[in-house]
Write a structure and sequence with these properties.
The protein is an alpha/beta fold. It is built from 5 helices and 7 strands, in the order E-H-E-E-H-E-E-H-E-E-H-H. Helix 3 (92-102) packs parallel to helix 4.
Length: 152
């Protein structure tokens, strides 16, 4: 029996260490850190092993441009709290399903003790945008009945 890409443990898909941002970090400093590291998201945490939330570049830009947030406000006010998380040894297909259902672009990977291991993004998942799980779940969620699903 062969295993496919969807069976790869999530720990094997992440390449670098996550950016950990303290809750009281200003929006300005968080934006600088995301830009410096050339990444889209960071984990908000008091300690590096206890995630409180995720903050994304898009959320911070929206906060400043649309909500007129002060650049000195803390990122905790604009993070996604209680982020979706999965065990680090979960298969890739579980992350695809979780990200598609939640319509989020990142989730937290936790080690066996429940501590932060890393941050996983859609781009870490092979073939995420090419269809597969995402396309199937979107079809199911947006069809009203079995006939519509079959036609899709």
């Amino acid at each position: 029996m062969s295993s496919g890409i969807g069976d790869i443990p999530l720990r094997e898909l992440v390449q670098s260490q996550p950016l950990v941002i303290l809750p009281e970090t200003s929006i300005r400093d968080a934006l600088f850190a995301l830009n410096r590291d050339d990444i889209q998201a960071g984990v908000v945490a008091e300690q590096s092993d206890t995630p409180l939330g995720i903050v994304t570049l898009r959320e911070l830009i929206d906060a400043v441009t649309l909500k007129r947030a002060d650049l000195n406000e803390p990122v905790i006010s604009y993070m996604t709290a209680a982020p979706i998380s999965l065990p680090v040894d979960a298969p890739a297909h579980r992350a695809r399903v979780a990200l598609t259902r939640s319509r989020l672009s990142h989730l937290v990977l936790l080690d066996s003790d429940g501590r932060l291991f890393n941050l996983l993004s859609q781009s870490d998942l092979p073939g995420f945008r090419e269809g597969g799980a995402e396309a199937l779940i979107n079809t199911i969620q947006h069809t009203g009945n079995v006939d519509s699903m079959a036609a899709a």
